[in-house]
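Hi support team,

I've been running sequence recovery on a batch of backbones for a student project. Most finish fine, but this one hangs at about 90% for roughly twenty minutes before it completes. I'm not sure whether the input is malformed or the queue is just slow. I've pasted the structure tokens below so you can try to reproduce it. Let me know if you need the job ID as well.

Thanks,
M.K.
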């Protein structure tokens, strides 16, 4: 690179020695004319980038990380024409990163900041059809403690670990997005690639930094998607790498620490294989919620939304669709409706291919309505994907799940 600043990830011994001497006054920096050394101002700025910057004590933009500069630009863009009269009523902004002592931990924290969902996922509870029990449990486990903290103290302290389990395609990730939308908490969307590193010891540090960031931005929600890929059974005779054991141990320790604090940090995990999880993790995921296959009422609501009736056209038989889709997940129903909607397009494509000349876009014919025979073809071409192991989820829910009275 043409930049003369030393990179934070590639420090030479001379760079470190010069910055250390400049910060702590052991030696004077060389004059700017010395071609063998970096410029004194650049060196001082690089040295300040090594140390942590507490909130509210920033002397210049060079001491900000790229994420903090982005946040500062967002805050300044809100106020236009120099009108800052309403800033006194705003909630004080906190720094993006906690005050870490080392540049290594700060770099790891910056990599995890990319997994923070800054904007709202825009998924409402009403947009999720069915799953009333799961939504009710999530509201009392996450939403209510944030809105009414007065009632959730002592024995009623909020659950810190929630597990969403069920067949694939039933809406577990959508429920997590709804929590992020409704609670307005800092949402960390974490997968296995976020906390697993090829460097020895970095995976455990990433887990620790993740929970430090969550406490710093509390109230916050850590969403661990496909958690069975991170913490499966330990010590059952199968080959397990030492780094994997250390990662699992660190995650268990950090989860155990959440239960001993009053900070509003929630761990929301999702998995399709709950029986693969370690028993120690199941103990820490106190609230275990089954997200089942959609009921007939939920399937009918999905069909009415995805295949709405067209005025003046043939009315589709939603009751027949509900009866024929027993065992289908929400994702399977969406694929079924997509296949049915493709049939009129295929008929239209066959007509256009017979025309030799290219038809202008404004003269293209309209797509016809979806007929009953289109739905029949879609039912023949689409099969359910998650109904074979539905009984295993019911058994796991009977043994370990969280139930509520209707």
């Amino acid at each position: 690179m043409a930049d003369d600043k030393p990179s934070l990830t590639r420090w030479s011994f001379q760079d470190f020695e010069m910055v250390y001497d400049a910060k702590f006054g052991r030696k004077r920096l060389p004059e700017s004319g010395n071609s063998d050394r970096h410029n004194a101002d650049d060196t001082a700025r690089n040295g300040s980038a090594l140390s942590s910057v507490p909130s509210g004590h920033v002397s210049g933009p060079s001491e900000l990380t790229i994420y903090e500069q982005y946040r500062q630009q967002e805050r300044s863009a809100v106020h236009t024409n120099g009108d800052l009269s309403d800033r006194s009523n705003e909630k004080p902004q906190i720094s993006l990163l906690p005050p870490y002592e080392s540049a290594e931990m700060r770099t790891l924290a910056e990599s995890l900041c990319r997994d923070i969902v800054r904007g709202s996922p825009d998924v409402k509870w009403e947009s999720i059809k069915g799953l009333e029990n799961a939504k009710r449990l999530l509201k009392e486990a996450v939403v209510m403690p944030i809105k009414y903290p007065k009632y959730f103290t002592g024995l009623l302290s909020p659950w810190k670990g929630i597990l969403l389990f069920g067949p694939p395609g039933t809406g577990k990730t959508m429920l997590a997005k709804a929590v992020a939308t409704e609670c307005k908490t800092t949402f960390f969307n974490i997968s296995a690639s976020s906390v697993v590193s090829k460097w020895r010891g970095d995976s455990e540090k990433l887990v620790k930094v993740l929970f430090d960031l969550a406490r710093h931005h509390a109230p916050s929600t850590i969403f661990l998607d496909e958690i069975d890929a991170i913490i499966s059974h330990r010590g059952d005779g199968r080959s397990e790498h030492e780094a994997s054991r250390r990662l699992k141990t660190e995650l268990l320790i950090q989860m155990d620490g959440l239960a001993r604090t009053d900070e509003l940090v929630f761990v929301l995990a999702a998995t399709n294989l709950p029986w693969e999880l370690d028993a120690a993790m199941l103990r820490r995921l106190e609230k275990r919620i089954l997200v089942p296959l959609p009921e007939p009422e939920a399937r009918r609501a999905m069909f009415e939304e995805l295949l709405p009736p067209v005025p003046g056209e043939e009315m589709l038989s939603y009751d027949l669709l509900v009866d024929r889709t027993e065992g289908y997940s929400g994702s399977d129903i969406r694929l079924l409706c997509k296949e049915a909607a493709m049939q009129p397009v295929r008929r239209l494509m066959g007509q256009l291919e017979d025309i030799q000349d290219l038809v202008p876009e404004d003269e293209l014919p309209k797509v016809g309505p979806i007929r009953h025979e289109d739905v029949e073809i879609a039912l023949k071409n689409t099969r359910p994907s998650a109904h074979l192991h539905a009984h295993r989820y019911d058994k796991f829910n009977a043994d370990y799940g969280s139930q509520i009275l209707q």
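--
Follow-up from support: It reproduced on our side and the slowdown came from queue contention, not your input. The chain has a mean pLDDT of 75. No action needed from you.
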